């Protein structure tokens, strides 16, 4: 199966909603106290439009001849002004999704490589992301690609 990458287009909106739903369902099943099923679309059209049109955001899709099978979305972030924090910019990888039935063909690596290339073009040398601990597949993927733990976020229900 040939997989190609390209920047997302507004016409991709409906197809992308299926992938967002798959991602959201996985998180909602694991953490129902944090995630809910939205009453409307899983992402508003305006959200996708900003991902596509704003210069500091990037949305790339992976597709086969007949459908979108994955995407990566990221944005340039800048540290706040705080006395002990070094001023810096990084790329926040907000989502990298490959449709369940299409995993294991290198699509995730292709998408991540494209995000790395986009980051380098902007002369940004760090990509950061958040992964929930239940998502062992994603954790393994990112570790194999060289990502390191930066910190842990913990919680206590009281």
UniProtKB/TrEMBL annotation:
<dbReference type="InterPro" id="IPR016181">
    <property type="entry name" value="Acyl_CoA_acyltransferase"/>
</dbReference>
<dbReference type="GO" id="GO:0016747">
    <property type="term" value="F:acyltransferase activity, transferring groups other than amino-acyl groups"/>
</dbReference>
<feature type="domain" description="N-acetyltransferase">
    <location>
        <begin position="3"/>
        <end position="158"/>
    </location>
</feature>
<dbReference type="InterPro" id="IPR000182">
    <property type="entry name" value="GNAT_dom"/>
</dbReference>
<dbReference type="InterPro" id="IPR050832">
    <property type="entry name" value="Bact_Acetyltransf"/>
</dbReference>
<keyword id="KW-0808">Transferase</keyword>
<dbReference type="Pfam" id="PF00583">
    <property type="entry name" value="Acetyltransf_1"/>
</dbReference>
<protein>
    <submittedName>
        <fullName>GNAT family N-acetyltransferase</fullName>
    </submittedName>
</protein>
<keyword id="KW-0012">Acyltransferase</keyword>
